[in-house]
Design brief:
The protein is an alpha+beta fold. It has helices at 2-22, 100-104, 286-318; strands at residues 32-35, 41-48, 62-64, 67-95, 110-114, 120-153, 164-167, 170-187, 190-243. Helix 1 (2-22) runs antiparallel to helix 3.
Length: 319
């Protein structure tokens, strides 16, 4: 059984080795056909994409105007193609300030850009598209102080001093008191204060918000371009070899009264016609024989496999 599978595998590998030759490339058609003045040379030009297979370019001999032409050379030339288009792109930067002077300092007047498909160019800032938006907000808390005076107090007693006050919508708490003597009296030749002024210091906190930064967006526009090798040009050169005379018609091959055929005329002396510039078509019988060979090899391998299998089964029956 193992031998049978080896034979089938060998036949399959042989068929696969021949398959690239069976799959013919897609036929290419010329974009231009030129003939020399004397008709000795015909050039056929083909423009293909880089991924296209040049194997589809016809290379077989053909006849034209009674002459036989044979391929002598196939030239290859990469044709550069200039590509250009209008392009715009939006740029976003951050700024600490929103004034136009600070914003424009971050945006150059011209900027180099390269597109995803490889086109490049210098684009110009469009001032009318500049936009400044707030990026976000932050908050901060700080301590504030204020003072209050309480005059004409009989003594330096803090019970007359409020322990908290309201100032600008904030609650302030008593932090410190300083006393000032407002009036003095002479007692036994001593100057004693009998009226006092309290200067109270209150503290509190305040919270304020601020802008953390700005987002600046602007559009650059202009022309981008590149030189790409998107086309490959092939030139098939055919040269004239031999003259092929026309055979007499089968209806009257030996008519003695028929006029003698005229002498061959150099095709270079004849005006070109649309029919002359079209490429000739010749069927390649090798393309038909190769698939038949693949089928024959595969069939032979399968036949051998079946024969060995039957012989193996007959031996098992005899035992």
């Amino acid at each position: 059984m193992k031998q049978i599978w080896l034979i089938v595998l060998a036949a399959f590998l042989l068929a696969m080795s021949l398959s690239p030759h069976v799959l013919a490339a897609e036929i290419c058609y010329p974009v231009a056909v030129e003939q020399s003045e004397d008709g000795a040379e015909i050039r056929k030009t083909y423009d293909l994409a880089p991924e296209e297979d040049p194997g589809g370019i016809p290379r077989s001999d053909f006849e034209q105007n009674g002459w036989h032409y044979t391929l002598t050379d196939l030239l290859k030339q990469e044709t550069p193609e200039y590509q250009e288009r209008e392009y715009s792109e939006t740029v976003t930067v951050t700024s600490k300030n929103k004034d136009m002077e600070s914003v424009l300092a971050l945006l150059p007047q011209e900027k180099e850009f390269v597109t995803e498909d490889g086109l490049s160019g210098t684009l110009t800032l469009q001032l009318s598209t500049v936009r400044v938006e707030t990026a976000g907000y932050g908050s901060s808390t700080k301590t504030v102080t204020t003072t209050r005076s309480y005059p004409n107090l009989e003594s330096q007693d803090t019970q007359y001093i409020p322990k908290s006050i309201q100032d600008g919508g904030r609650t302030m708490t008593l932090q410190d008191i300083s006393w000032q003597t407002a009036n003095t009296a002479n007692v036994d030749d001593f100057a004693l204060g009998d009226r006092y002024t309290a200067v109270a210091t209150y503290t509190g906190t305040t919270t304020s918000s601020y802008v953390t930064g700005y987002n600046v967006s602007a559009e650059y526009s202009g022309t981008v371009s590149r030189i790409a090798l998107d086309r490959v040009r092939y030139v098939a050169i055919f040269e004239r070899t031999t003259f092929v005379p026309e055979e007499p018609t089968p209806e009257d091959p030996g008519d003695p009264t028929a006029p003698e055929p005229e002498a061959p005329v150099d095709p270079g002396e004849l005006p070109e016609s649309p029919e002359d510039s079209s490429p000739g078509f010749h069927f390649n019988w090798a393309l038909l024989l190769i698939p038949l060979a693949v089928v024959a090899v595969g069939g032979g391998g399968l036949g051998i496999a079946l024969f060995l299998r039957r012989r193996s089964e007959s031996r098992e029956e005899m035992h």
